[in-house]
From TrEMBL:
<protein>
    <recommendedName>
        <fullName>Transporter</fullName>
    </recommendedName>
</protein>
<keyword id="KW-0732">Signal</keyword>
<feature type="signal peptide">
    <location>
        <begin position="1"/>
        <end position="22"/>
    </location>
</feature>
Amino acid sequence: MVLNKTCSIFISILFFSSAVYAEDDFTHYAFANYLGSGLYRTSGQNATVVNLPVSFELQKNDTETLMLRAPVSLGFFNFKWSDVPEGDLPSSVGTATFTPGIEYRVRTSERYEFQSYFDLGYGKNFTSGTDVAIMSAGVSSLLDLEFKQSRPRWVNRLYFAGYRSFDGEQKETYSALQSGIDIGTDIHWQWNWLGVDVEPRVFAVGYWYFDKLRIATPFGDDVLVSNSLEVGATLAFSKPILWEWMGIDRLGLSVRAGDGIQAWRLIFEFPI
């Protein structure tokens, strides 16, 4: 998700977001890489974060892959959907996080893959000057199912994330379980410009937070989220497009809702 290539790519990527901002709160940017991308709206307020899922292969064989994760999130204040048709773009970066880590993937059979990761990173709010240390770990189960030619993939993930401010005065954690399925349509065509095969796919996923996730709002009360449901559709590419190190192998749109939170996501990767 490179921001300085073209205007159209820049505007599209802006819809990646993770929470609603309160200047003296850390949750909205400390967890940006783990809450999921999208334009979140609660209590009549919006927020925008650009998630850059950068990763590199360190080692790979027939069954195992070791990845270096290096995701970056950039947060923008006072930006909303209505600004886009008028051509208005964010004037400055409000927050940034960098959470490098290691991901290990092992395929135990043709249909089953197990994944685990550990991240340790840093976040900064440029407006308030505050800094946080961020840690996250999780495991995932991916199972390829048989159903005609739709090639469904059932995904379950369990993960934990936490942060602590550098002055030690604030800290917070959350853990979550998500389960969803991604299903193909068996409709294929060739995108000659990018040299990839394309298939439309649809997905649905549920999220359950063991300790309610607090989404801070600039005005009014914070929102405690215990669960949410998301549905959407993507175009799946036969190989990553544009910049392979960014892993853009999907392009799609979804909506997530639950406990007073509504989020629209423009998707650039596997959605579950």
